[in-house]
């Protein structure tokens, strides 16, 4: 399938027409700007007919118009992601993803795609940007085996803003001994701190190896200290050494949905809340991940692991709904891999346990998915638990091992040409 991106022309972004001024509130006594008075109609004002930017209701109105037009063409709006539209007719499948006025279009039938482009151009003033290569800061590289997503240019801009282009690179985003707390001297420029952390959050779209570190520094946006800023600088030094890294997606002959779930009990020394993370793979490709602090404290490691499984299960359910609407749902039931045997016991054993009385909702949610055959839970050793990279700072060998298994790395450079034998003259 070939991806194409589009953008709307500025000519079609706003139109206006005239109407009588008595349609508006007569209590407004302020005179309008003289630059907007029409000599032929001095008592008329301009009423905005449609606009893409500036008004609170403009995005809603624009999306309603776009979705209505696409549905007339036979597209169905996804329930899992309202910005996704799917067209299915026989063997032809087309996906359209919309972000305001930027569109990504891909499908299995090039002729149908061309007819759709013509129809879009008649309804809207669009510009065909060709094969997908750059979208909202994401760089897309195509090769024979799949796709490579990166944000090298965006990362370069972030380093330039932080004045760290000449910084010395480091091997990991956080030291394995780093423990952040709210104690310490306050940083003199909290606005700059928040700006850099926000930029790093957007960088995690294609860099899951940054998720845990960025999550840690994001917890102190209200009152950052000097130590927190030093942690941000270390993350930027790591980005400097891996600026070309991105996420790879490869073709798979047998796609299966597998999720890794993990939690680090009482990781936060101040609130004693646990940090949990998950990574979900489709056909060996990472499609969803998360690194967060749990909203409540857990009484045991089993409880924190089980709550992490519940969040992972909820994400897998959403992914299955999305894949079903895309008509690519794998036939095998999804699997959650966990390295805590007690949490697995709670998910598989229908007998109620006193340790699970206070987590009744999560308990029934996961157990009913398992008992109905919609979900399968299995044990995985800690050394193979890929979600471990989202719950704690790891030493360099283990961090690089998990990063490689997540599909994060540099782009594959391919040299083409013939082979010359220079052993004989």
TrEMBL record:
Residues 28-174 form the Reverse transcriptase Ty1/copia-type domain. This is Reverse transcriptase Ty1/copia-type domain-containing protein.
